[in-house]
Amino acid sequence: MKRLVVGTVAAAVLVLAPRALMAQSRTFTGETKTATATVESIETSTRTVTLKKADGTYVTTVAGPDVKRFAEIKVGDKVTAKYYDNLVIRLKKPGDPDVSTSSAATTGSGQALPGGTTAKQTSITATITAIDLKAPSVTFTGPNGWKYTSRVEDTKALEKVKVGDKVDIVWTEALLVSVERSM
């Protein structure tokens, strides 16, 4: 998932570049993904749940302490998860302060069966550290050693940015989980 987001970031920055000269931001909505699985086993001492996906493969996950109604989950329950993300990108003006923040929240569904929403928002400032017009590609660096290089499709947009330009990237993710009981 991280690779998908970083690739989207690189593409988004370069699509934005011509508009960025006017200090506008641009929003890129990711694809909403939905997955459904059946609870196959539950290890209560470690809060580990094994799920069987529709294709017959298994995935194991650990329910963190923010999952308040863990004890209500039963073998045979159907779990549906919907994932959504989007990016807002803005070319920074010289002298604007860098950002590096992250926040998260989890909310229960309030329904008869367990479920809820978890969301995370991360904001960073990334710097264009290399541009290769022959490849064509661009390299970004950011806080905590974050570094990414991506091939670029729109070479005209690539010509409008330069090494040293900074962009603010705000990435929002949300996961909605619902549980249905087998009859």
What is the element string, with H for helices and E for strands?
HEEEEEEEEEHE
Could you list the spans in which at least 5 consecutive residues all have pLDDT below 50? 1-22
Helix count, DSSP H or I runs of 4 or more residues: 2
Strand proportion? over 45%
What is the total domain count? 1
| Largest sheet geometry | 10 strands, antiparallel
Overall helicity: 10-25%
The overall strand count is 10
Structural class: mainly beta
Topology:
Blueprint (H helix, E strand, L loop, with lengths): L1 H19 L4 E5 L3 E11 L4 E6 L4 E5 L15 E14 L8 E9 L6 E18 L4 E5 L5 E5 L3 H4 L7 E15 L3
Antiparallel strand pairs: 1-5, 2-3, 2-5, 3-4, 5-10, 6-7, 7-8, 7-10, 8-9
Your description of this structure?
This protein has 183 residues and is mainly β. It contains two helices and ten strands; from the N terminus they run αβββββββββαβ. The protein has one domain (2-177). The longest helix has 19 residues, at 2-20. Strands 1, 2, 3, 4, 5, 6, 7, 8, 9 and 10 form a ten-stranded antiparallel beta sheet that branches. A hairpin with a 5-residue loop joins strand 8 and strand 9.
Q: Outline of this structure?
A:
The chain is mainly β. It has helices spanning 2-20, 155-158, and strands spanning 25-29, 33-43, 48-53, 58-62, 78-91, 100-108, 115-132, 137-141, 147-151, 166-180.
